[in-house]
C-alpha cells in the first residue's frame, strides 16, 4: 500500500476522473441515445422509449449474429477448457524441455498481434483446404483463449498438495474415482472462472474473427457492418444490450479470478 | 517422449499411478494430443505464414516458389516504408499517451485500501472486457462533425462551425487507440506497484525520506518494469490494429495494418500481405525482446 500526501491524491484523482470520462463517456452517450432522440441538437427529454429495442427484434441479421456468437463462444469454451485442462495436467506431471516449448507455443497466439494469429490461421485453412465458416472461427477463438484457460487451471493444480491425490490412491480409489471425487471438485472454481473469461474474450473477439470468418457473422462482425452505414438508434440499443452482457460477464469473471493478467 | 515420465508419474499430482506408465495407452494418447494439437493449429500455420511471404502472385494465382520479391517490393516501392514508419510512430505515440495517463491512475489505485480499492480497480479493468468494436463506435459518434462533442460546442456557442479535424485522420486513430488501450497500460503498472513490499516503503519513510523522495528513489524504479510492460502491450496492439484505423482513420489515416488487411481483401495478394506481416512481426519481436531485457534484471517480478 502506497501512502500519498493529500495534494498528490487530489491531483491523481483529477487524472483518474479524466480517464473514467474517456473510458465511459462515449459509452454513456451511446446508451443515452438508445432511449432518447435528438432534434436540432437538442435532446428531446419526452422522447424516452424502448422503440429502438423493439426494432431489434425484427432484425434477422442481429438475431442470427447473436446465435452465432453464442454457438462460437460455447464451442470455444468447451474446446479450450478440455484441451487447456489436459495441457495443465500434462505440464504439471513433470518438467522437460519439450514441456517448456509447449508452454511457449500455446502462449504465442495470445502474445502476438491478433492480425498475425488471424493471418497465419487464414493461410493455414486455405492451404489445407478447410473452407471458412463458423468452424474456423471456433478454431481461431480456441487457439486465442487456450493459454488463459491453461494458466488458470495450471495455477490451481500447483496450489493443490500432492498428498491429496496420494491419500485418495492409498485409500484404494481408482484413478478415475480420484479424478472424479478429489481433483474435479477442487478444480471446479478454476474451471468456471476460466470458462467465463474464455467466453468473454470470444464474445468480443474481432480481429482474428474478421480474418477467418466465412459468410456467417458474429456480433462484432454484424455491428461492424451496421456501423459502416451510419448511426441509427437500433445500433445504440444493440450496443447497450451487448454492454450489459459484457458487464455481467466481467463482474462474474472478476469475482471468480482476481485481476486477470495478460502475462 | 520425456524420459522422466516413469519417475514423475508415481508422485504426479494428476492422480495417475506409475503402474502402467510403460504401456498406458491413455497416457500416450494424452501426451501425443498435448503436442499434436498446438503443432497443427499454431506451429504449422505460423510456418505456412512465413513460407507464404516468400511466394508470389502471377496472373491471379499464388506461385508456390520461394523468392524475395515481396521483401524487395516493400523496401523499394516508395509507398510502403513511409506508412510503416508512420504506423510505428503512431504506435509509440499510443504507448506514450497510455502510460502517461495510465501511471497516475495505477498509482491512485495502489494508494487506495479495502473495498474502495477493489471497486475502483473494477472500474478501470471492466473496459478491458468490453467490446472493442463498440468502443470504437462510441468514440466515433463523439468525435464526428455531427458528433456529440461538436453538438455541445455548437450549443454552448464556443464554435460556429463543426470541427472536422477530430475525425477521419491519423490524430483520430491515435486518440481512439489510446482510449481503447488505456486499461492495458493501467493493469501491469498497477500490478508492479502492488508488488512493492510494504516494509520497503516503511523503511524509506523511517529513514526520513519525503513522499516525493520515496517515489523518486524507491517506487518509480520498482514500478519501471510494469510501466515498460504496459507500454509494450499498447504499442504491440496499436501496431497491428486494422479495424480502428478503418473506422476512424478515413483516407488520410492509412496505417500498415490496413495495407496488410487490404492485401487479403480487394488487393488479393496474400504473399505480399504475409511479407508485410512478417515485417510487422519483426518489430513486435524486437519490442518483446527489449521488454524482456528491461524486465529481467533487478527486482524479482
Write the layout of secondary structure elements.
The complex is a heterodimer of chains A (263) and B (301).
Chain A: H1 6-32, E1 37-39, E2 42-44, H2 51-57, H3 60-92, H4 97-111, H5 114-128, H6 134-159, H7 162-170, H8 175-204, H9 207-212, H10 219-229, H11 233-256
Antiparallel strand pairs in A: 1-2
Helix pairs in contact in A: 1-11, 2-11, 3-6, 3-8, 3-10, 4-6, 6-8, 7-8, 8-11
Chain B: H1 5-11, H2 25-52, E1 56-58, E2 61-63, H3 69-76, H4 80-111, H5 114-129, H6 132-143, H7 148-156, H8 170-194, H9 198-206, H10 211-240, H11 243-248, H12 256-264, H13 270-295
Antiparallel strand pairs in B: 1-2
Helix pairs in contact in B: 4-8, 4-10, 5-8, 6-8, 8-10, 9-10, 10-13, 12-13
Describe the protein's architecture and organization:
The complex is a heterodimer of chains A (263) and B (301). Chain A is mainly alpha-helical and 263 residues long. Chain A has a domain at 66-216: MetI-like fold (Orthogonal Bundle). Chain A has helices spanning 6-32, 51-57, 60-92, 97-111, 114-128, 134-159, 162-170, 175-204, 207-212, 219-229, 233-256; strands at residues 37-39, 42-44. In chain A, a hairpin with a 2-residue loop joins strand 1 (37-39) and strand 2. In chain A, helix 8 packs antiparallel against helix 11 (233-256). Chain A is globular, with a radius of gyration of 23 Å. Chain A starts with 5 loop residues before the first helix and ends in a 7-residue tail after the last helix. Chain B folds into two domains: 5-52; 70-295, MetI-like (MetI-like fold). Chain B is 72% helix and 2% strand. With 301 residues, chain B is an all-alpha fold. In chain B, helix 4 (80-111) packs parallel to helix 8, helix 9 (198-206) packs antiparallel against helix 10 and helix 10 (211-240) packs antiparallel against helix 13. The model of chain B is unreliable at 1-21 (pLDDT under 50). At the A-B interface, helix 1, helix 3, helix 4, helix 5 and helix 6 of A face helix 1, helix 2, helix 4, helix 5 and helix 6 of B.
